[in-house]
Amino acid sequence: VRVEIVAVGTELLLGQIADTNSQHLGQQLAGIGVSCTYHQHVGDNHDRIVLALRTALARTDAVIVCGGLGPTQDDITREAIAEVMNVSLERDGTIVAAIAAMFKSRGRDMPDNNARQGDVPAGATVIPQRRGTAPGLICPVGNKVVYALPGVPYELTEMFARAVAPDLLARQRAAGETAHIQSRVLRTWGASESGLADALGSRFNALEGGTVTIAFLASGIEGLKVRLTARGDDAAATAATLDGEEAVVRAILKDRFGDIVFGVDEQTMETAVAALLLAESHTLGVAESVTGGLIASRLVSVPGASAWFRGGVVSYASDVKGSVLGVPDGPVVSADAAIAMAHGARRVLGSTIGLAVTGVAGPEPQEDQPPGTVFVGLAIGEASQHASLTLPGDRQRVRDYATISALDVLRRALS
Ligand code: ATP
Ligand code: MG
């Protein structure tokens, strides 16, 4: 079953309001495994709404039209649907009575205009209102269907979930189509979007036309997401398909980039780090210069962080790196300084692991190093390692990238 959304309202065409209804419906349809193949916008004009509906019905199986069900003269969706169905509108006394009762309960008389909201195309089924006045409609057109929903988002979302989604799923089952859909997101750090697309390109093509799809989503300083979506006959079969595809994709990524997958679905870099620290009964102390506490802040956002997080030192001034952390004299934007900071953090904070960051956020260079130069130091017991990074962007971006990069250095060392 393929669906088209038709959003009605001149204010949408004029850009006076954003079409959040189509956005919401698109997300909901994807979530229940119904494919939405077109969106249209049309103004409050009878002939053009009729044309929009006919166009939609010609190329899809079900049309969701939203807006224009109100009581005013420019609310003409009902009339347009009746024309497309080639039937007349019949006033439904129960609807009018219900609207009148609603006005009465608020101490007002129903304006005559509102009676129009009781007009129903002959042969349509009414979706009763629970939140406003205009009822929705389920209008059969041959073996296809037009669902009419009110434009008010609060009313639309409730009515879609209660009446439209179940009807679409029933149609899908009747058509013998599988409706089980599940997604899984692999979260990565360390590859470029084009690199990912290149690595997974042949897999992407091999899946074409099948029950599994791969999509890439850039999420800025949180890395790149690879979303796998599978369709199947039931939940167990779909999950099994997804497991199989996840293994294939992980192997391809590992082969090309190494250990770039840090989490699945809602897992973040800090929850991944937390799980690894907990599993090996490690405790962590951090020493931050360029990130000024951002690393500590991300870590303590994880519930239960006190089980493994000892604390942090924001050693911003060079002499504080020396006096508090014992960093020897010399350049402070360097691998040696980062490692010394990490050992210092471990000692001062009494943790088994020390993680440290020093670098240049910009906009000015420091110690002849350009903005974006960042060193991460890691001390695990007496052993140490470091990473040198060149990060893009302005001051805030460099600090954000440095934060997640440092956490990633720790994650890789523990995995
Ligand atoms: P009403 O009974 O309020 O007249 P209606 O079904 O006639 O509802 P519209 O008149 O088209 O719907 O829109 C009512 C309000 O809902 C608009 O003023 C707008 O704020 C909001 N709205 C309409 N369409 C959309 C949309 N596509 N996306 C987001 N909001 C919308
Ligand atoms: Mg209206």
CA distance, first residue to last residue: 44 Å
Overall, the morphology is elongated
Average the pLDDT over all residues and give the rounded result: 94
- Along the chain, the helix and strand elements come as EHHEHEHEHEEEEHEHEEHEHEHEHHEEEH
Whole-angstrom Rg: 29 Å
Number of beta-strand segments: 17
Molecules bound to protein: adenosine-5'-triphosphate, magnesium ion
Strand content: 25-35%
Task: Report the biggest beta sheet as strand number plus sense, adding barrel if it closes.
Answer: 6 strands, mixed
Helix count equals: 13
The low-pLDDT segments are: none
Coarse structural class: alpha/beta
Give the strand order, joined by hyphens, for the main sheet: 2-1-3-8-7-6
Helical content stands at 40-55%
Architecture overview:
There is one protein chain. The chain has a 6-stranded mixed sheet, sandwiched between helices. It has a 5-stranded mixed sheet with strand order 14-13-15-16-17. It has a 4-stranded antiparallel sheet with strand order 10-11-9-12. It has helices at residues 10-13, 20-31, 46-59, 77-85, 93-105, 153-174, 193-207, 235-257, 269-279, 294-300, 318-325, 335-349, 395-414; strands at residues 2-8, 35-42, 62-66, 89-91, 119-121, 125-127, 136-141, 144-149, 180-188, 212-218, 224-232, 261-264, 284-288, 309-314, 353-359, 373-380, 383-390. Strand 10 (212-218) and strand 11 (224-232) form a beta hairpin. It has 415 residues and is of the alpha/beta class. Helix 2 packs parallel to helix 6 (153-174) and helix 3 crosses helix 4 (77-85). The mean pLDDT is 94. The structure holds adenosine-5'-triphosphate and magnesium ion. Adenosine-5'-triphosphate (ATP) binds next to strand 1 and helix 2.
